[in-house]
């Protein structure tokens, strides 16, 4: 597929994340105005809430954009999602007769503040990156038995905390927690000293399920994808995670990109999962390519200093695709809900500079990385800004997510006093 | 405290779960009528939605009972919760002048169908029963090291799946899942063969948090309590839970009682947590008695046969109280939300007949229990009904929850076909 040209000139650049081919879904506000649904096009946002209010955009017999989240469009199902993209193209395509109707409803992205694009119903995080699981297993167990025995048979996942999901740009407060440093006899309650990021892609579930769904049906349930940083306190995690898994280590925040890239925009970039090392049970078999060729990178910028790109990876490094994760999620009969968010797990490539967390990049702090500024990092320092970027690269265009960014701010001096 | 007398005669019996002292919160419907909020009194339900609609009950400058869930009353905060109980007493107390206003809004419980009493925002399950953790650790590790090293220092918890919470009376479908029986080389996808219940109490969070809260503040955030059965597929759990904890094993369903007993009704029954075996970090210290003397029991009835009580326990067997769990839940900065549900963890007593799961009662299936019918059980069989009951016993009255019950029905023959 090639670039679909728009009369919004900035959308035709090979460097924008938001050509007409993309049309990602966000929620924005300008000044004191209400937050509302919009679609990115070049360096502008098309105010779809306004278009709907004026009767120019109609998806159902009731409004779906009179709320500052995309869940109501999701509720309408895949046919409506396709209809929506088609109606938008009718406004934004080069030479579109309806151009004049849209012109008044374009807002510069530079003037807008972005909000969480959807109501996160529940949040599940997976562990579906082969290299990440191997690296972590090598560090904490041994390289010969790095992968847990179940890892090649099922997509391991755990439930996270939806209330902690925030939009790009939200400051992240360094958490307190129970830690037990090496050699200590008893745990202490202190700010985390090993605070980390995780490079992930999140799948947004757009239709609900009752009972188990097949991998193919699960794929069709996915409304779109976001970039996702599952902030992780490694020292809290190390002490708490046995035997019931990560809990407070992952509950401080999870940052997502402001834009949901709809599945349709990524169709030209489908890729199969890697070859299986052991045969999967039939229910998990890949019916067709389920991953996407999405180039990913992580930048880290100390306070007031330039950014260094510290990792470059690709979504194709996942061993289990989001559709396989979602299918497995329903095996027990677990009902899935519109607005559920599935984190892919950390997407580390095979090379050292493609690792998707500082835990792996610095090998547990034993091999600190050096930034372009000359500083070194084992984990994130106060004031550091971590930014994820990602795009599927087409011929003369790219399908991007915008930035998924957050700055770590210092822990509260007295966490209980800071609460209530 | 003694019985508070009501003109609703059935509320004055020593055997009802619902004297005037209780006033628990439920959602009910009659015939084809809408589901709405009601309060149990003796064998009747007071239709508080109708009282509010008629202007007889007023908690805020907007209605809170025009929805079939209690979250909007919770949102008003603890002062409103107290005001609500006081206004209800004004209708229901023996000799109350406002009796005539309430009489038309009483519905027999026998005519009502009960619904989920609140919107479950997120669901967390803890592991705070000392005997349960010891028993499970003894079975799966060894008795000398039964408790994980962190267990005596923090309330271990994991996030569960809110969408799977159902009200008492909902049938439970035996789940499929990945299992790896002892001795098998590879896993299989099959219906669970070791399906179990867990006897728990659930705390309903009634006010939201930002940042960390103290144990005392956490206690004040709790709106009330329910009985909770965290259905568990032990064979799915055994294969999946390393290293990130239980996932599909716990996602089939969690059943709660139809009635939320408000914290105020339980105040006379407060009891301290057991003596500490190691000193807790100061943030977790108990500021005053945090548990309640709630007698618990589990009944199991094979299809069409009488029930056998297979366990008798008490909430005071918990090592960490719900307020300590909730405080710990906020340590990382995790925002807690109105309608969050915290399962206590399985409440097993010290004696064999007080164990809160079949896993423990049958010692992993090695010592099947015998029912009154002569049948034996290691795990739950298709058609079995498991019922939890609980009550705080006062002088001549009891504060109960109603039954928390569910019947296990056979697995689908073809789980994907049964879904879509």
UniProtKB/TrEMBL annotation, chains A, B:
The organism's place on the tree of life at top rank: Bacteria
Pathway where it operates: Amino-acid degradation; L-phenylalanine degradation; acetoacetate and fumarate from L-phenylalanine: step 6/6
Protein residues bound to Mg(2+): 230, 250, 254
A GO term for molecular function: metal ion binding
The protein, known as: fumarylacetoacetase
Fumarylacetoacetase N-terminal domain boundaries: 21-117
Positions with a binding annotation for substrate: 127, 141, 237, 241, 346
Organism of this sequence: Rhodobacter ferrooxidans
Top-level enzyme category: hydrolase
Active site: 132 (proton acceptor)
Keyword Membrane in record: no
InterPro entries: Fumarylacetoacetase, Fumarylacetoacetase-like_C, Fumarylacetoacetase_C_sf, Fumarylacetoacetase_N, Fumarylacetoacetase_N_sf
Domain Fumarylacetoacetase-like C-terminal: 124-395
GO BP: homogentisate catabolic process; L-phenylalanine catabolic process; L-tyrosine catabolic process
Positions with a binding annotation for Ca(2+): 125, 198, 200, 230
EC number of the protein: 3.7.1.2
């Amino acid at each position: 597929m090639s670039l679909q040209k728009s009369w919004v000139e900035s959308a035709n650049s090979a460097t924008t994340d938001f050509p007409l081919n993309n049309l990602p879904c966000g929620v924005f506000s300008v000044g004191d105005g209400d937050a509302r649904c919009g679609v990115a096009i070049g360096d502008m946002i098309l105010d779809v809430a306004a278009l709907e209010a004026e009767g120019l955009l109609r998806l159902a017999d009731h409004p779906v954009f009179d709320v500052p989240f995309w869940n109501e469009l999701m509720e309408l199902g895949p046919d409506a999602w396709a209809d929506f993209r088609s109606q938008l193209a009718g406004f934004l395509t080069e030479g579109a007769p309806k151009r004049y109707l849209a012109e008044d409803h374009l807002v510069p992205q530079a003037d807008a503040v972005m909000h969480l694009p959807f109501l996160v119903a529940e949040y599940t995080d997976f562990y579906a990156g082969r290299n990440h699981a191997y690296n972590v297993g090598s560090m904490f167990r041994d390289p010969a038995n790095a992968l847990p025995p179940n890892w090649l048979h099922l997509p391991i996942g755990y439930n996270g905390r939806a209330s902690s999901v925030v939009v790009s740009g939200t400051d992240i407060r360094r958490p307190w927690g129970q830690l037990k440093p090496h050699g200590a006899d008893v745990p202490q309650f202190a700010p985390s000293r090993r605070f980390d990021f995780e490079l992930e892609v999140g799948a947004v579930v757009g239709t609900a399920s009752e009972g188990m769904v097949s991998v193919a049906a699960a794929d069709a349930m996915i409304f779109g994808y976001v970039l996702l940083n599952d902030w992780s306190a490694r020292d809290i995690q190390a002490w708490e995670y046995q035997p019931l898994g990560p809990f407070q280590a992952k509950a401080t925040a999870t940052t997502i990109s402001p834009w949901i890239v709809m599945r349709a925009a990524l169709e030209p970039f489908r890729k199969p999962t890697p070859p299986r090392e052991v045969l999967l049970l039939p229910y998990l078999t890949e019916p067709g390519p389920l991953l996407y060729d999405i180039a990913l990178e992580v930048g880290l910028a100390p306070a007031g200093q330039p950014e260094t790109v510290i990792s470059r990876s690709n979504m194709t490094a996942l061993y289990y695709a989001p559709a396989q994760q979602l299918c497995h999620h329903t095996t027990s009969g677990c009902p899935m809900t519109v607005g559920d968010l599935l984190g892919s797990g950390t997407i580390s490539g095979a090379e050292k500079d493609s690792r998707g967390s500082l835990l792996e990049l610095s090998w547990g702090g034993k091999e600190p990385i050096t930034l372009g500024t000359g500083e070194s990092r084992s984990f994130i320092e106060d004031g550091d800004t971590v930014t994820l970027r990602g795009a599927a690269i087409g011929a003369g265009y790219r399908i991007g997510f915008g930035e998924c960014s957050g700055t770590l701010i210092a822990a509260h001096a007295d966490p209980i006093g800071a609460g209530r």
